[in-house]
Amino acid sequence: MSRAHVLLLFLALRSLAGPIPDEPFWQDAAEPIRHAPELDGATYRKLVVDRENVVHVLTDRGLARVFGDTLAPDASHRSLAGKPVVDITASPDGDLYWLLADRWLSNARNGVPFGSVGTNRYTHIVAEADGSVWLAGHGIHARADADGRLRENLYAGMSDIRVWNGAPGKPWIGVDGRIRAFDATGVTALASRGGRVWLGTRRGLRIVDPEGGATAGRAGPPELRLPCTDITALHAASNGVWVGTIRGAFFRRDAATPSPDHNGTVADGAPLTADHGIRLYAGRRWLRDDAVVDLATDRDGQLWVLTKTGLNRIGFHRTTLAEKAEWYHRKVRSRNLRFGFTAERRLRRPGDITSSEMIDTDNDGGWTSYYIGSLAARYGVTHEEETRRQAWESFGALERTQTIHTNAGFPARTFERRGFKFSDPDRWRDAPDPNWEWKGHTSSDEICSQTFAHAVMWELVARNAAERSRVATNFVRIVDHILAHDLYLVDVDGKPTLWGRWNPEYVNWFPPSIVDRRLNSAEITASLQLAYRMTGDDRYRDRAMGLFAKSGYLANILGPMSAVALTPGFIHQGNDMGDEWNHSDDELGFFTYWVLVRFAFTPELRAQYAAAVKDHWEFERPERYPIWNFIHAACGGESHEPEAAVWTLRGTPLDTITWTVTNSTREDLTKLPKSFPGREMKEILPPGERAMARINTQPFILDHGDGGGIDLPGDEFLLGYWLGRFVGAIAAPAAR
Fold first, then answer.
1. 28 SS3 class
2. Do residues 34 and 64 touch, judged by C-beta distance below 8 A?
3. Which of 191, 225, 479, 720 falls between 20 and 30 A from 433, CA-CA?
C-alpha cells in the first residue's frame, strides 16, 4: 500500500467515531513535606486545617504547623509557645481552638473564647460556631458556653469519653466506644455531612443514613469490602468519605455518585476510582508510612494525611492529557536520555532522585524504539520540527547499535563507554574503538521493537527519498543478516543467540499451545514485509511466501489465542517455554502487529492479520492498556475502547519510581487462584494503586516493585497518548 493509501486508511478510521475530548481532570501527586529537626522522633496525634488554610498538627512536643513545605513547631503566639497541648479542633467556621491541661481557648474572635477547667480532666474538644465548646475526658463530658460557663455530665464507671463534630449544637458523644444514638459500638472515628454519618470501627465502616426507611438514624451493618477495615480516621467529602486505616488512606465514593474522572470540584474526592468506587493511597509513592492517624482536606482540595511518622500531602491539580504528556516529555528529555537511548536511573537512596545515575538495561534498543514510536506519532499529528529532530536523534542510537562493532546486521542491545557497563556484565564485548563496549546476546525482543521503530520512522518521519533510504539501509541490513544465517540472529561467537530464532526447525517445534509459534512466525513475516516495502526486492516477499507455503507460518499467525495454554516440558536451553504466560510476548505481539497489518503484502492478508490482532486484543482487553488499544485501532479495530485507554492515561501517576506496592493484604479485591495467565485478582485497579512498571508487566499482579530503587522514563505514557492522538481517538486539547 502506498503512503497515500495509508493516509486514506487512517482518515477512514478516524471517521468511525468522534474522538474523546481532552477535558481537564484532577491529577493526583504526592507533594513531600519536610519536617523540622525538632520533630525527629515525635509522636503525631491530630491534624486540623483552619479557616485561613493553615495546617496544624498536634504532637507530643506541642503544636506544629506547616510553613510552605515544612512542618515545624509553632511559636506564633508567644503566650502559648512550648505549652503542652492536649487537643485541638476547628469550629464550623474554621477557627482553631486549643485544649490545654487546665483551660481551653481560641485566638479567634480577638482572643475572647476562653474557659478554665479542672487540671487534666479533659482530653477532647469540639467547638461550635457561637464560640461554645464541648469537652470530653475520663468518665466526663461538658459543654462550656462562649463566656466560659461549664456544665458537666459524669459517667460513673466509664473511662473513655469521646466527642465528635455533629450537627450544630449536637455533637456525638461516645462512651467507651459506644454511640447510643446509633446503637453503634467499637467506634474509632466519626464524620458527618448533612444528615449522613459515617462511623469507623476496627472491623469496617458503618453508615447512618437519615433516609434509611425503617432503619433511618441507625447504623447499618459494617461495610467490609474495603482495602482495610481497621479504621483510624474519617473525613467527609461532598460525594463520599475519606478513610484512614492502619494500611493507608482511601476514598470511598458514594454509590450514587459517578467517578469524578474529569468533572466536579476538587472537593469531590479522588480523581479516579476503581469500578467499585474505591481509591487507595498507600505505600511510599504516596505516604511516609501507612499507619494513618488523621486526615483532612484544605479549601484548595488538597488531601493532608497524618501518619505515624509525620505529615503527608497529596495534591490534586487540574490538567489535561496534553499537558500531562508535555510533562512526561520534559521529564524524559531532561532526565532519562543516554546517548539517545531512553534510560532508567538507579537510585542509590530509595526514592531520592538526587542520588541517581543513568544505567544501561537489557533492552535499551527496544525501549528506545517505543520512545521513537511516540515521537513519530507526535510528529504525525503536530509536524513539529523539534519533535522530528528528536526522533532522528534516538534513531541514531539504533544505527550505532550496528556500527559500534563489525558483525554486520547484528544490533547490539546497548553500548557504553569502557568500564561503565552495568547490567549483565557477561554479555558485553569489546568494541573496535577501545573507548567503548557493547552488549551482545541480542534477542528477538530487540528485533521486534526495532522493526517497529524503523517502520514508523520510514512511514511518518522520513520526508524524502534520502531519509527513507537511510532508514531502509539500516533495517535491511538486519533482515539480510537473519536471512544469511538461515533465519537466526548470530552473535560474534558464531552461534545463534538464545531468543533470536525464526527458523522453522525452532518455530514449529512449539505446539500451537505455546505462543512462540504464533509470535515468531509473525515477527519474521513483519520484518520481511517491511524490507519488501522499503526496497521492492522480491526476495523478501518470496521468502515470506515460502514460509507460508512450506512451513505453515501464515497458519501459525492466524492460530487462535484460545489455543494457548499451559504446556510444560518444552525446554529450550534450560527454559521451560510453556509453563507460564509471559507478558513480554503480548508486548512483542502488538508491536509486531503494527508492521504486520500496515505493511501487509495484500489486502487479503491485511484482513486476515487484522482478525488475528482482534483475537489477541480480546484477551488483553481487560487491561485497559492504551498502547494495545490504539495499535488495535491502527490495525482497523473499530471496537478498541478508547474510553478505557483514556481512563488509564488519566490515572497514570507522575511518580515514575518503582516503589513497592502491596495489594495482597487488601480486603476489597477478588483474589484469583494460581492460573496460567498469571492474573492474581479479578479487578483492574487504577494505575496509581499499582506498581510503576514497564509495559511487559501485566497489571493484575497484587504485589510488585523494588522499594524505590529505579526511576523509569515513563515514555510508555507518551506512546499511548500520541498513538491515541494519531488514530483520532483522543481530541486535541481545547484552549484553556
1. strand
2. no
3. 479
∠ CA 678-248-287, nearest 5°, is 100
Residue 7 φ then ψ, to 5°:
-65, -45
Vertex 594: Cα angle to 590 and 598 (nearest 5): 155
| pLDDT of 5 | 45
83 phi and psi, to 5 degrees?
A: -75, 140
Domain count, the chain: 1
Residue 690 placed within a domain: yes
Average pLDDT over every residue of 30-47: 98
349 domain-assigned: no
Model confidence at 620: pLDDT above 90: yes
Cα distances (angstroms) measured from residue 310 to each of 65, 69, 86, 166, 292 = 12, 13, 18, 27, 10
Q: Is residue 493 part of a domain?
A: no
Q: What is the dihedral of CA 264, 269, 273, 279, to 10 degrees?
A: 170
d(CA 499, CA 202): 53
Longest dimension (CA), the chain: 99
Strands (E), 74-223: 87-90, 96-99, 103-106, 114-116, 122-127, 133-137, 140-144, 150-154, 161-167, 170-175, 187-193, 196-201, 204-208
Confidence of residue 153 (pLDDT cuts 50, 70, 90): confident
398 within 8 A of 369, measured Cβ to Cβ: yes
C-alpha distances (whole Å) from 612 to each of 353, 515, 549 are 43, 13, 19
pTM above 0.90, yes or no: yes
Q: Which structural domain range is residue 679 located in?
A: 1-23+320-335+640-736
Q: Where are the alpha helices (DSSP H) in 237-320?
A: none
Q: Give the integer Cα–Cα distance in Å for 330 and 344.
A: 15
**Residue (of 507, 478, 505) closest to 403 by Cα position:** 478
What is the 8-class DSSP label of residue 112? -
**C-alpha distances out from residue 635 to 6, 43, 309, 611, 618, Å:** 11, 58, 51, 9, 14
Which grid cell is 8? Answer: 486514506
Average pLDDT in the 408-428 region? 96
Residue 213 lies in a domain: no
d(CA 654, CA 321): 12
- Residue 158's pLDDT band, with cuts at 50, 70 and 90, is very low
Q: What is the CA angle 678-679-682, rounded to 5?
A: 160
The Cβ-side half-sphere exposure at 697, using a 13 Å CA radius, reads 14
Residue 536 sits at the vertex; the CA angle it makes with 533 and 540, to the nearest 5 degrees, is: 80
Q: Is 705 in contact with 661 (CB distance < 8 Å)?
A: yes
Q: What is the DSSP letter of 563?
A: G
